[in-house]
Structure formats: structure tokens, C-alpha cells
Amino acid sequence: MKKYLPAICLISVALHFAAAQAPADSRDAEDRRIFADGLFSREMYGYAAVEYARLIRDFPDSSELDRSYFRLGEALRLTEKKTEAATAFYRASQIGGKYRLRALFKRAALFLEIESAESAAELFAELLKEKLPKDIHEYSLYYYGEALTKIEDHSKAATQLERLLSMFPESEMAPYAKLSLGRIYALPGEVNDFSSSRKYLKDVATAPPTSRIGAEALFLLARAEFTAKNYKEAANHFADLEKKYPDDMRLEESRLQAAWAYSNAGLFDAAAKSCVAALESEKAAEDMTSNSRAEFMYILAGANFQMMNYEEASKWYISSREVAPYGPLAGASLYQAALSAFRIERYDEAMGTLEPILSDASFRERSLWLMAEAAVGKKDSNIAIQYYRLLVAEYPDGAYTTDALYRLGHQLVLAEAPVEASGYFLHLAEKFPKSALAPKSIFASATALE
Q1: What is the DSSP letter of 43?
Q2: Is 374-450 assigned to CATH 1.25.40.10?
Q3: Model confidence over 106-137: pLDDT tens digits?
Q4: How many angstroms separate the CA atoms of 192 and 238, rounded?
Q5: Which of 59, 150, 182, 335 is within CB 3.0–4.6 Å of 201 for a Cys-Cys bond?
Q6: Is residue 442 exposed (0-12), middle (13-18) or buried (19+ Cβ within 10 Å)?
Q7: Does the predicted model carry a pTM greater than 0.90?
Q8: How far is residue 239 CA from its own chain's centroid?
Q9: CATH class for domain 295-357?
């Protein structure tokens, strides 16, 4: 800090027009300008700022004054003294020389950098009223669009970015404008235009100016397709992101949504691999919450379940519950763990796993059904009857009711309660006459009494 203190003092003097010393001759001024430029070109921006400040102080009537202010602004900007840089650019613009428009542009861009987007938008709006050189014009349109995006004036932002593409289709800013438009048009509400969003993002992903922009385009494209529930397309884009840009920052960030995309698209092996990669990643572990870890485990368990690896599925469902016992997936993890155990005929385990969620309204109906089915599996008619009765009493029009009534009747026959069994069979046939089980129930009702 000490070595920059004189620089700060000199800059302050220069910017506030402190009393100037008697200027040296023009050759001295030119030599000092060359020296300052040399420091700048060697990226010694702090020292360059000192020299430009001295030039301003010592030669206030120089024909190069606007240039000195402009270069001072650049040196200050590159040493992160952005507020002071904005002041220097303002001074350069007020002199009215050939650096005026560039100084106005730099000042507006600085306001965007220091998160004063509303001021930046106002400055770019004024600047675009000028007759601008091509490079300043196209950059101003882009940054004006970005400033408007930051203040959430998305419709107006899209208009400016579309103007850039229309007026300067070959601009080096065109891919960046398309990326921004892809993001804007994917937003919900008035600006939503999914087909345009997809088109722009695909354009960028196909021919990105940098790997970072290519990765961002694929990430946004995958996320947009996922939001639109086009899971296969989303999965393809997430796969491309991992294949083409394995070191990009978006890869770790996208793994959870990618895993869901793979799972929803029926690509269970890919879903499992994505989850394992995330769970084993040291980098991801630094930012992963317990709920996120539990979610990865839940997806991994589901993928194994769909691939009929029920024992592995049960293990991961239980792990998911243990990692986040009060998380949003805790109840679902227990239910699915029980279902996995049921599929491999571990009926006692299934019933024990269901116990904690039997009183949870979100899971009670299906848990009662699975408890009854597990009891049937272990040939315990009394327990099966208990849960079938609870199910049909509490959910008379539920998703499992017709099957539960029929199976309850069957279990009552086995328990030698034919009259009660006949009554349940008859109730099924009368309440659900269009059910495929209705004709069978009428027959079963009669035969139960024989």
C-alpha cells in the first residue's frame, strides 16, 4: 500500500486540478508520455497512472490532455480503482477531443462493472444517440443489453441485442449477444420464446468463440430443455457438456440436474454414473449440502431400482435418509427402500422400514398397501387383513382400493371368515362395477359362502 500512496496523492491532485507547476518544454512532455506509455505496455499500471497524473498536472494546456486523462482512466481501471477511473474518463470526455466517445463508452462500461447497472443503462442510452464508430457502436449495443438485463428490463434488453445481430451480424460480440438472448428468451413470462432461445444457444454451441462460451451455451441449452420437460434433449446436451468441456466450472454445477435428466430420459446407467461422479468429487463435496448429497443418493438409488439392482437401491435409499433425516426426500427414501426390500422378498425389512412413515399423510396410503402386501409375502394373513382393512376404510376411493378389497376378501377366505369375505367381494362389485375385478368379485362372493 505504501508504494502506491504517492500515486494516489498525485492522481488526486491531477483530477482536482491542483495548481500546476511551470510546464517543461514540449520535448520533455513527449518523453514523459512515451515513458508512461512504456510502463503501461509493460502492465505496470500503478506506475503508469502516476506518470499520466504528472502529465496532467504539469501540462494542463497540452493538446494531448484528453489522451492523458483517457490513459489515466485505463491505468486506474486496471488497478481496480474503478471509481477514480470513471472520473478520469469523464474528464477526458469533457475535453471533447478524439477520445471523447471512447471515454464515454469506457465510463458507461465501468458503471456496469461496479454493479451500477441502472446508471450504466442511462449512459449507454445517451451514447447510442451519437454517431459512433463501428467498434464502439456494436460494443455499446451489447453492453446496453447487458445493463438492461441486470435491471430486469428483459424485453428492452432483447431489443438491443437483436439490433446488434441485425446491424453487425459478423461482430465478435454476436456469439455473446446470442448467448444472452438464449438466456433471456428462456425466462418465463412475457419474453419467453423457447424456440428462439434454443436456436440462439445451438448457434453458439455449434461454433463457440471460446470453450467457456461453448460450455455455457450447452449448459443453458440443457437447462432450458429440462425446464420444458424435454428430458432426452436435455440429457444429450448435458452429455455433450461433460464430453467436450470436462474441466468447465458448469460441469460440477450441472451434475444434479443432469442426473435427473438422465433418469427422466430412462438413461439409468448414465444417471448412476453422474451421481457417483458427484459424490466422489472432492471439488463438489466442498459446496454440497446434506440435502444435495441426499438427492444424489436418491437418484442413484432410483437408477439402480430401475435397473433391478434392488439390494444396491435399498442401500442408497437408506443412505439418503441417513444423510438428511429431515430433508425433503427423507420420507420418499424410506418408502422406496421398503419397496426395494419387498422386491427381493425381504418382507420383514420392508415392513420395518415403513414403520416411521406410516403416520405420514403423504405416504400413508401406499405404505398401508405395501405393509399388507409384505404381510401376504410372509404368509401372515392376520397382519395382511389388518392393513387391507385400514386401507379400504381410510381410502374408500383410493388408487389401491379395488385391489385391496379383492385381496382382503381372499385373505379372509384363508382366515376362514367366509361371510365377511363375501361381503367385501360384493362391496367391490357394487361400488366399482366397471372394474376388471368386478365380475371376479361377484363369482368370489358366491363361492366364498359354499
Answers
A1: T
A2: yes
A3: 999 999 999 899 999 999 999 999 999 999 99
A4: 22
A5: 182
A6: middle
A7: no
A8: 16
A9: mainly alpha
